[in-house]
């Protein structure tokens, strides 16, 4: 697992409350198999790009970034902020509300601002929990790539597996015992150097997104110990929504 770094950044009250509650809970219900955590930059703005398999993912991602000396910020669903107390807590913890109906423009601007200010921003590149029946990453969205191209900050890919055993996708019932092993493998920064000098056209953004997703899928294959799929699952081709619970019927 490697030697953890000292915490270098100021934490607000919300982070300390979360750590005092969440970390002991995760330690009691999961075993951590971190690989490559030292590749998370000690300082400076960066984007941590992960695959998405469970609603508990933000907690496990916060766990590894905390262990390696960084405080993470997230793009979170705007609906979570509507609750007076939860919204206050999330804002105090530095989380970024995403309003899908507004195409995420404000969230993008806030994420760029955070990265330029030297913060670590976590992005689940698929935009939602994967709809792939086998749990492999599905086709990615452009958020992480656009933030990287706008800031020039490194994109650190992470492949993860195991969190879905603790809390299955779209389930409200966790399975805490026996303890589940959460595996995370951190890769080298995705090379986007040749794209930074280009105009962020649709083609350039798509190329950057593809590179980020390829890096993540390779890492997921390693933590799963299985060959990667030849093609990523595409919800549109499969006739399912890329967001929300695929088991719920669509409203006509």
UniProtKB/TrEMBL annotation:
Keyword Cell membrane: no
Origin superkingdom: Bacteria
Domain Phospholipid/glycerol acyltransferase: 46-163
Region spans: Disordered: 228-252
Pfam families: Acyltransferase
GO molecular function ontology, one term from the record: 1-acylglycerol-3-phosphate O-acyltransferase activity
UniProt keyword annotations, A-Z: Acyltransferase, Transferase
Entry annotated with the keyword Transferase: yes
Bias (Basic and acidic residues): 228-237
UniProt cross-references to InterPro entries, sorted A to Z: Plipid/glycerol_acylTrfase (IPR002123)
One annotated GO biological process: phosphatidic acid biosynthetic process
Entry GO CC: plasma membrane
PANTHER family associated with the record: 1-ACYL-SN-GLYCEROL-3-PHOSPHATE ACYLTRANSFERASE, POSSIBLE ACYLTRANSFERASE
Protein's name according to its UniProt entry: 1-acyl-sn-glycerol-3-phosphate acyltransferases
